[in-house]
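Exercise: predict the fold of this chain.
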Amino acid sequence: MANADEKPTLKITLEDLDKVTVASNAPQVLAGGTSGARQYGNIAEGSADPVVADEGKSKFYLQGWFYLGAAGLLGALMAWAICEPAFVDGQGHRWGNWWVIPMVVAFMCLGFGVAESMVERSVKKAMVRGGLALLVGVVAGIIFNYLAGFIYLITEGIVYELGVRTNKNPAFWIARGIAWMIFGVAGGLVYGVVDRSGKKIRFGILGGIIGAGLGGMIFDPIALLTNAGAPSRAVGFGMLGLATGVAMGIVESALKDRWLYVASGPLAGKQFILYKPMTILGSSQQNDIYLFKDTTILPQHASIELRGAQTFIQAAGPVYVSGQPVKSRALRSGDLIQLGRYAFHFREKQR
């Protein structure tokens, strides 16, 4: 006879386990962190790629088209403000008449030369590049002003031979736009020279030609709309600088083949196009990519080298690629590179 105090045996079958559900509102905790904390992946486990939240999607001001456009606009307006008090409308000339366009070109070049360094918050690099950009820009402004004037005489003569006699005709606008493309060449040239990159020079010149051509074509319509000397020059030259910078940023972004996109850190949302055979990353302001506000970053923490169609990373300090610690490794498109608080997505155009 069974003992009355004995309890029945509890049996759990596989069917019972299948019926068990977990509440959807249960807190989720990732390895290496606590609930509610921002996660940048677990680099202690190399078996899975770390997940990094993209913190920079909405930061339009870190896009090349924006800061180059703003730099061109501010540079052109600064030059206009300097020369306008000495500019004479109608008959007679003062130094402002002779220097306004060379100064506009020079200060546009200055803006393009320092724009990226200012975005990176590298004051030392901005000062070095700014001095070089202004020097080259002044020389280019004088030379290219004469070249643009010569081209304008030719295009204006062609338009005149076609029977056009007034600047209200769009044919005159096109003639000025063609001549002013030469100013875009100056801007793109200086943009690449200060970064010592031949590819950047080519992209900058192409974008500069497109932007300056558009800026030149809208100069006369702006003058007709404002019907006043000083305001029309301010708006016209400002649009020249703006259009040139925006076009340069769009062209170099469209034609890039390998680049780093910053997913986290103070520069999240910015992309660094890999122009040079060797790109240095670190906490020194002289580096190609200056990583600030992180005491764990060495002065020259890592380098990225282009070897033909392949891209390699060399590490002097702690570097993780897709969760794995590395010293040297070939990169593949989509790899996640982590240096301290910074995370980069390496990307390359599909060939």
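Check your answer against the key: Helices lie at 14-18, 64-83, 95-119, 123-161, 170-193, 198-217, 219-226, 229-255.
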